[in-house]
């Protein structure tokens, strides 16, 4: 969520230019999408709302970050954190949200009907 807010504060033009420099396809649209997913998706993750769907989106972003930005830097100085975040997203994709989460509240409502 904080990375998305940092992108928002920089301005979409700056983020789009950075994505263009990384040779990311459709950089204008991808920059807006990444910023939106990082902000709204981060909030949804905190609340435990649509956890699995957001985990898929975060996984896609992490794969893109590794492939287009960090891979050339190597593992230890580049993409080790991104691999960790990818693993966490995949873990949430498999397990879903637990305990106190809005997903569980809505699932309970559906089961009662």
Automatic annotation (TrEMBL):
It comes from the Bacteria. It comes from Ureibacillus acetophenoni. It is found in: Cell membrane. Belongs to the DoxX family. The keyword Kinase does not apply. Its main location: membrane. One of its GO terms (cellular component) is plasma membrane. This is Uncharacterized membrane protein YphA (DoxX/SURF4 family). It is a multi-pass membrane protein. The chain crosses the membrane at residues 26-46, 53-71, 83-107. PANTHER family: INNER MEMBRANE PROTEIN YPHA-RELATED, OXIDOREDUCTASE CATD-RELATED. InterPro entries: DoxX, DoxX-like_oxidoreductase. The keyword Cell membrane applies. Keywords: Cell membrane, Membrane, Transmembrane, Transmembrane helix.
């Amino acid at each position: 969520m904080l990375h998305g807010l940092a992108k928002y504060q920089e301005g979409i033009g700056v983020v789009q230019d950075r994505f263009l420099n990384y040779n990311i396809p459709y950089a204008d649209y991808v920059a807006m999408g990444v910023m939106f997913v990082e902000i709204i998706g981060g909030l949804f993750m905190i609340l435990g709302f649509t956890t699995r769907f957001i985990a898929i989106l975060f996984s896609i972003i992490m794969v893109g970050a590794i492939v287009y930005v960090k891979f050339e830097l190597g593992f230890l100085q580049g993409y080790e954190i991104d691999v960790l975040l990818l693993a966490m997203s995949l873990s949430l994709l498999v397990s879903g949200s637990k305990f106190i989460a809005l997903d569980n509240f809505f699932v309970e409502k559906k089961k009662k009907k």
